[in-house]
Design a protein that fits this description.
The complex is a heterodimer of chains A (115) and B (111).
Chain A (H helix, E strand, L loop, with lengths): L4 E3 L2 E4 L5 E6 L6 E7 L6 E7 L2 E4 L8 E4 L6 E5 L8 E8 L9 E2 L3 E5 L1
Parallel strand pairs in A: 2-11
Antiparallel strand pairs in A: 1-3, 3-8, 4-5, 4-9, 5-6, 7-8, 9-10, 9-11
Chain B lengths: L8 E5 L4 E6 L7 E8 L6 E6 L2 E4 L4 E4 L5 E6 L8 E9 L12 E6 L1
Parallel strand pairs in B: 1-9
Antiparallel strand pairs in B: 2-7, 3-4, 3-8, 5-6, 6-7, 8-9
The chains are: A mainly beta (115), B mainly beta (111).
């Protein structure tokens, strides 16, 4: 498809389990972002990539969260030793250039439930 | 990023115009105002962006007074499919990837 694609759409993890969430941005988009959205709240910024470089990871809530984009296209958000408070929708977004004034396109999100 | 205040919810009926006002008293000179729409089970979608006066596109209009301390998103003749959460964001374009969404306004359109 032409949009941002995320997988899995739904994930149930047992507390303590590691999870990996994948994002396929729109082809050719330079910038990629991850956001976390808790139930009933707006999305909150996690991290930003420009090509393969992670330029901002200030929003990652703890060192259990790790994101990578090794070849400048697909990105993976990894959460180690999941905890119940990690339950949220994880949104990936991309934009064509370096995000200055560019429209940011969001995927449908990966819904993570930690039980 | 400038803090924004918008109503938690609004109800409307099909065919009516919906106006959502967002307050941003401490908006900076280089800040833009951007609105996003989010349907259930989907990611946010860009609607409109403006700096001053009025901006209109095929989806909505954005009215910004001269002091820029508030803005109003206007949705003409809403339909049931316009039921969504609408977010007002304020920030500089150079830093606009770090979007601060807030809680948004839940607009419910009834038949």
């Amino acid at each position: 498809g032409a949009g941002v694609s995320q997988s899995p759409r739904y994930k149930v993890a047992k507390r303590g389990q590691d999870v990996a969430l994948r994002c396929d941005p729109i082809s050719g988009h330079v910038s990629l972002f991850w956001y976390q959205q808790a139930l009933g709240q707006g999305p909150e910024f996690l991290t930003y990539f420009q090509n393969e470089a992670q330029l901002d990871k200030s929003g990652l809530p703890s060192d259990r969260f790790f994101a990578e984009r090794p070849e400048g296209s697909v990105s993976t958000l990894k959460i180690q030793r999941t905890q119940q408070e990690d339950s949220a929708v994880y949104l990936c977004a991309s934009s064509l250039r370096d995000s200055r004034g560019d429209t940011i396109y969001f995927g449908e999100g990966s819904w993570l439930t930690v039980v | 990023l400038a803090k924004t205040t918008q109503p938690i919810s609004m109800d409307s009926y099909e065919g009516q115009e919906v106006n959502i006002t967002c307050s941003h008293n401490n908006i900076a000179t280089n800040d833009y105002i951007t609105w996003y729409q989010q349907f259930p089970s989907q990611g946010p979608r860009f609607i409109i962006q403006g700096y001053k006066t009025k901006v209109t596109n095929e989806v909505a209009s954005l009215f910004i007074p001269a002091d820029r301390k508030s803005s109003t998103l206007s949705l003409p003749r809403v339909s049931l499919s316009d039921t969504a959460v609408y977010y007002c964001l304020v920030g500089a374009r150079s830093n606009d990837y770090k979007l601060s969404f807030g809680a948004g306004t839940t607009v419910t359109v009834r038949a």
